[in-house]
Amino acid sequence: MPLVACVIPAYDAARTLASVIGGIRIAVPHAVTIVVDDGSRDTTGVEAARWADHVVTLPRNRGKGAALRAGFEAALAMGAINILTIDADGQHDPACAPRLLAALLDADVVIGARERRGSTMPVHRRLSNAVSAVAISLCMGRRLADSQSGYRAMRAVVLASVAPTGDRYEYETDFLIQVARLGLRITCVAVPTIYGAPSHFRELRDAARVVRTICRGLPFAMGSAATAPAK
């Protein structure tokens, strides 16, 4: 039974996948690496088969949410106790993984919050990340520094309590909102921003999905605030 499973959703990530897996193996030697090849058009599947401990292949591109869902199912089937997620595009430093996992001693979900100031992240992405963090914080009733980071650690038992919807980036948003609704502990750990490989996030279509998910969560947040006892 693995103590830690590292789920890596991958789409057209052949160029960076090996270094991400290698970095995780150095940082967390006991982790089992699970790559979900989300219908890649390049040789991601070949690289995954070569370097990962376990590979899940989706026959067509379904989106990051679907890839995470498939990876979580594989991790739970293995009996993992803690689960780490990291993107395959090399935009997260695997060396930070032990800090995220260590933070699970006092939390149920840990987010690797990317440092925006002084980073190479494009200005428009920096702005959209900041705005979405504020909006999702309102839904959750607590401040969240980075809501879009794919670098996360969580207790496996959390996945038995939530059922996020959506197959693309809105899945991660719904996950956080559902975790907050259950009153589970969420914390952030600062991680550096490494921006190089192009993002698969589609500014209009994926942003619209995230916005719809946030809008569904706002009535709950407002209702909770209205019924909260006065201090």
Question: What features would you describe in this structure?
Answer:
It is a single chain. This protein has 231 residues and is an alpha/beta fold. It has a single domain, classed as Spore Coat Polysaccharide Biosynthesis Protein SpsA, Chain A (Alpha-Beta Complex), CATH 3.90.550. It is built from 7 helices and 7 strands, in the order E-H-E-H-E-H-E-H-E-H-E-H-E-H. It has helices spanning 17-27, 44-51, 64-78, 97-102, 123-140, 170-181, 205-227, and strands at 4-10, 32-38, 54-58, 82-85, 109-114, 152-155, 186-191. It has a 7-stranded mixed beta sheet with strand order 3-2-1-4-6-5-7, sandwiched between helices. Helix 2 (44-51) links the parallel strand 2 and strand 3. The chain is globular, with a radius of gyration of 17 Å. The N and C termini lie far apart (46 Å). The model is unreliable at 219-231 (pLDDT under 50).
Total beta-strand segments: 7
At the third CATH level, what is the topology name?
Spore Coat Polysaccharide Biosynthesis Protein SpsA, Chain A
Give the second-level CATH assignment, the architecture.
Alpha-Beta Complex
**Low-pLDDT residue spans:** 219-231
Order of helices and strands: EHEHEHEHEHEHEH
Which percent bin holds the helix content? Answer: 40-55%
* Helix-strand category: alpha/beta
Q: Report, as a whole number of angstroms, the end-to-end distance.
A: 46 Å
What is the overall silhouette? globular
CATH class: Alpha Beta
CATH superfamily: Spore Coat Polysaccharide Biosynthesis Protein SpsA, Chain A
